[in-house]
Amino acid sequence: MATINYKDLDINKIIVTNSFTWNEKEIEVVNCISSDDKYDIVMITLQNSEEDGIYNPIKLDIYFHLYLVYTYTNIVFSDEDRADEFALYDALLTSGFMEEFLKHINIRDYTEMQDEIEKIAKMKMRYNVSAASIMKKFVDDLPANAEAAQQIVDNFDPSKYQAVVDFAKAANGGRNI
């Protein structure tokens, strides 16, 4: 079998965009983004939505849709625009912009990323309650906990301890506690 060099195939990424008009501005929406961008959308959505080891479904929805707009459109958002992303999402949603944008996005990409977010969230939740996760957290926290315990021992002052015992005894009417 004859081999062919990949570079000889002359494969180029074709970027297709479609657009819609919003308040007399042409909004471009790319039809396909890179796998790297898809990965970033999924992982940043998960990262920003995690609260105390669980995923907040409201945040999952908000961040997923915001990152779709950030990545798929030609809109440039300033730091000030993104300072309150909940307010930004609300504005995009209630104005009808989000609905119009979603009509122009690649539905296959949208569904795949949404499914991946759900799968990863479920796997992480299962892992968080597993014995392996609990042991890892214990091992990870062990040095800090041991250091804190050592500081307590190092800072222990028997005279202060005795003063606390004496106070408690006095508060208890002179009876032993």
Keywords:
177 residues; mainly alpha; 2 domains; two-stranded antiparallel ribbon; 8 helices; elongated
Query: Domains counted in the coordinates: how many?
Result: 2
Reported for the largest beta sheet, the result is:
2 strands, antiparallel
Number of helices: 8
Structural class: mainly alpha
What is the tally of beta strands?
4
Range of helix content:
55-70%
Mean pLDDT level = 85
- How are helices and strands ordered from N to C? EEHEEHHHHHHH
- β content, as a range? 5-15%
Gap from first CA to last CA: 90 Å
Strand order of the largest sheet: 1-2
Radius of gyration: 28 Å
Low-confidence parts = none
**Broad shape:** elongated
Short characterization:
The chain is mostly helical. The protein has helices spanning 35-49, 57-72, 79-82, 85-94, 97-103, 107-128, 131-154, 158-171; strands at 17-22, 25-30, 50-51, 54-55.
Question: How does the SSE layout of this entry go?
Answer:
Blueprint: E1 17-22, E2 25-30, H1 35-49, E3 50-51, E4 54-55, H2 57-72, H3 79-82, H4 85-94, H5 97-103, H6 107-128, H7 131-154, H8 158-171
Antiparallel strand pairs: 1-2, 3-4
Helix pairs in contact: 1-2, 1-6, 2-4
What would you say this structure looks like, in words?
With 177 residues, the chain is mostly helical. It has two domains: 15-129, no CATH class; 133-171. Helix content is 63%, strand content 9%. The protein is built from eight helices and four strands. It has helices at residues 35-49, 57-72, 79-82, 85-94, 97-103, 107-128, 131-154, 158-171; strands at residues 17-22, 25-30, 50-51, 54-55. The strands form two sheets. Strands 1-2 form a two-stranded antiparallel sheet. A two-stranded antiparallel sheet has the order 3-4. Strand 1 and strand 2 (25-30) form a beta hairpin. Helix 1 packs antiparallel against helix 2 (57-72), helix 1 (35-49) crosses helix 6 and helix 2 packs across helix 4 (85-94). The chain starts with 16 loop residues before the first strand and ends in a 6-residue tail after the last helix. The mean pLDDT is 85.
